[in-house]
Write a structure and sequence with these properties.
It is a single chain. By secondary structure, the protein is mainly alpha-helical. Helix content is 49%, strand content 7%. The chain has 12 helices and 7 strands. The longest helix is centred in the C-terminal third of the chain and has 27 residues.
Amino acid sequence: MPDGTFQAGEEDSPPDDNAVWRPYYLAAKEVLHRYAQNREGQIGIAYKMQELGWAYRDRYGKPRPFTGDDVRQVCANWAEYGGIVGNKKARDRHPLVVDYEGIDLDPDKAVFPITLLYEVAEVRKKRTTKPRNVGVAKTNHRYALSELVYCAHCEEMTIKHDNPKLRSRLGGWISNNGNSRRYRHKHGVKCGCTNRSVLCGVIEADFKRLLDLLVVDESQLDSLLKLGIQTIKSGGSMSAEQIEAQKRSEIASCNHKIEAAVHLFGEGRISKEEYLRRVEKNEREIAQWEARTSDSAKMAFELTMCMEAISKVAMLWDVANQEDKQGMAQNLFTEIVYNLDRTHSES
């Protein structure tokens, strides 16, 4: 589309006059040609496909930008493109185990040139290495913000394409010598960010700064409550005194209804079933009104709990270990969007 988004459609009826038609068939063919040249890796091909505006069809039939794993899937299905239907899925066929030269592709059923498909199979075999048992890592580092941090540029793409699957969560990475620990962007996704990783110390210091900004002085609690109550009043809700008055009135009304039901049942004017129904209904309403708290009291309780939780985390953050930091961060936040290109001079 002219705005850079993708939309499924037909060549003869484009959704926009300036839209560019790019069928999935040609997208797969472009991937196979680039892979067969053996000049770029899967990640590099994915970046190039994104730059050129090609889209990949996901499992739900929707177009989205290419990723490195999409390139792998296309290349792994070279035999299926040649008209062969095997007993295993493409992902279960290891290139070093399968003898591609012994597979006779069917020209009548092939959807791509057979020579191209054999070239892809040969390159896959050359690029594949035998798995090695490197043992268990002697040191294991726990990342305080694991499972929480997402790339801000990918968030913009998610909104632009209306596709939550474009979100990228930053993963932990440690150098071979163990001296550098970073949060690193997902491979195979080109979202516009210049930096692909950030030091753990940098992002965790930014997180601590966020906590400090969220800490509220207890002396400001009354001011916050007054501001909240004013907001509620402006929305048409009743004040705390009005709510208490309504509460007393409704409870008195329910007790009066129960007394009336007893009187009517004693005179035989209503059945026992109707009497029990009325009493149960009014007793239930009384219990609900007695359990109801005023908006101001509820707001004060919630604000106090939030203030205590944030203050506690901010106070313990610098002295806690990574495991405790991870637990505290996950108790406060469900996700954190971080700009990898942010500089220290930015606010």
